[in-house]
Amino acid sequence: MSTESGIETSIDAAADAVGSVWPLHSFVTANPLAGFEDRPFHEAVADAERLLGGDGYPSAEVFRRAFEAGQIDPEVLSQELAEHGYDLDTEAALDRMAAEDRDTATDAASVDESATTATDRVDAVLTKWLAVFLDQGRAEWPMPNREQGFYAAIRRIAPHDRDIPDGEAFTALPESPTEAIREHLADQPLGEWQDVFEFQLAALPGWTGYLKQRAAGGDAWQTEYPITLSEYLAVRLTLVDLFDAPIAPEEVPDEGGTDTELADDRVPLPEVWLTAWEATYRAELVGSLTETSAATTRAADGGRPDAQLVFCIDTRSEIIRRHVEAQGDYETHGYAGFFGIPMRYAGYDSDVTVDACPPILDAQHRIADHPRSRTSAAKQEHDRWHDTLGASQRVMKRLKSNAATAFSFVESAGVGYGAALAARTLLPARVYDLLDAADERAPHDHEFCEPSVDYNPDSVHELREGLTLDEKVEYAATAFELMGWERFARVVVFAGHASQTANNPFDSSLDCGACAGNPGGPNARVLAAICNDDEVRAALRERGIEIPEDTVFVAGEHNTTTDEVDLYDSTVPDSHEDDIAQLRADLDAARDGAAAERAGDMGADADSGVHETQRRAADWAETRPEWGLAGNAGFVVGPRSLTEDLDLDGRSFLHSYDWTTDPDGDALETIMTGPMVVTQWINSQYYFATVDNAVYGSGSKVTQNPVGNVGVYQGNGGDLLTGLPLQSLLAADDDPYHQPLRLSTVIHAPVDRLTEVLSEHEHLAALLDNDWLSLTVVDPTQEHRAFHYESDLDWEPVAPRAATTPEITGEPTAADD
Asked: What's the CA gap between 178 and 232, in Å, rounded?
């Protein structure tokens, strides 16, 4: 192996220490400790704490509140303590954890944060350079020479930077960044190079996590202005040398096993409490699912619902699904919100494309919106609105940012501009009504455009445009097979979802996670177009999937802030107008109920739910427009009959699955290797951002500053913050709304089938063996008994519990208070 390839290999291995970070405009919720998943959870969080400085468990106070609120069963806790060798009662255990928390806080307080170290000076220079190099169109004066790459650009500007001792040293660096790294490490033992890389990458984990993701994703910005981790390290190591900063971590003296918990191989005490908390939540969930499994049977094939609606598996969909079903004979299903289409989407007249699929997949198709007619009235009206609005925005930007016109702009526009600002601040609900009315008048893309689903061999793009007939058939068949469909209503709706907020840097974190932080409406439109294709239906019939001739597929989008469901029905035939009209009316009624429920969760008056959700959507001072996926704790895979009589309080991801239609277990395998992994990512992001927001989150929105459309700072500089803000997780200061629990997955299927899947996918078994999530099976072939996965492909029967009420809320701490 050459020196260059060896360096690159070591850098890739060291980069596991930092989690991937996506830009704000496509925020992806991912496990910040993904690189540590190859080890047991308690070891991983300990290793991450040493490297990144973040806590891995809730504080003693959080555990105390959960225990006092009844969220931790005393019997379960006592059993867990005894099994792990802790001879402590509840109070003694809490006191010990509280003492450890105080010791940690004391150690942190003893560090003189006002003292500027050599490493701080390295970080200050680097973050300044990274911010200007990685800017995505926000800076008025872009950094020169970016197209040459980060390393080359810095070599040219560093001699002019007065913040470094000897900028001219950069001009003497080799042309190759890996060669520069080799020179800087010449005095370091070869076997320690990876430790050096890990130490240096972990110094600014937000920026390096973003570089890691950008280099791997290869988007348009990366293509135009390339940057790699090796370039970053070459620059950083040069600065380390110039500032005489430490190049490797200091060796910590071995104190000979003073930590009794680790010395005798016991898991840490907080791990025991966390396990008991999760087991308490899981017992109630599994108990209710076991009861409904035994009490329900599959619907007869002869029945036909008024409509079928497919929502994302997102926890917010659980709420709207309950309220939709309450309005009539409606059948709802859960499916990953990208609807199985791994696509790169180009909206009509848009300058950018987005990868609308989970980050664990690569986009395979380019799907663009094209007008059905170049002369349609709707298109021309849309273009007039768009051109007028765009011109106005450009003029406003020039006037406000130009030093010569800024003051005159304020003087001339002050009264009207101030009135508009006041209205947005004091009357956000009224502003929402005005904007909504304007939105109704302006034609939308889906009214005059259609997605380019047909394969176009002549299109010249990085990805081929459209899909072949075979691909269309496969995507449609996969959807129905994964959900276990055997009947179709006259109207089938694929409803993607998106959020609606004002002045919110984290707005994409509230959009569809399965679409990589983008709205799911475009994916829904593609699948609906595929399923309405006569050739596709004919091919599906040959595969045993009979879609009646009168079935019409309609796309839609669920606004998770206001709970409005918008149907894209411009091409629905006249024969189905009455069906659509009734569905619209019932969706409006369902919205009233869902909005009232969610307004109550946010501490607002449930009787004014729609008004409150609209206010939050339009209020630019609102730090919490909605709760997002806060509260998520479970993932249920099974038929809707398993959960339709349960109120899961918006805490469970729901994926439709019928084991009787999946004899080979292929659909189950797809769900476990795809959606189960993605939900674990989401759950881990919420978990770690809750237990240590300073390290794994992003602090308060009030003191955040967006930078370059890629991330946020706290204050006026420093590292990119990597996770969710406090307002997405806390009901009030030090009062978590989100319960920091690892994901509890429950699957309705024969246990042997899950064993087969796990035996063929070692990475899934490792996630379970290492306690990153839990898995329980409700086996309908064994008298609906439940079995809990222990380790090494072994299952433990779950003891039957007393009947539970049909409500699995486990209300967050704030509600219990």
From this structure: 10
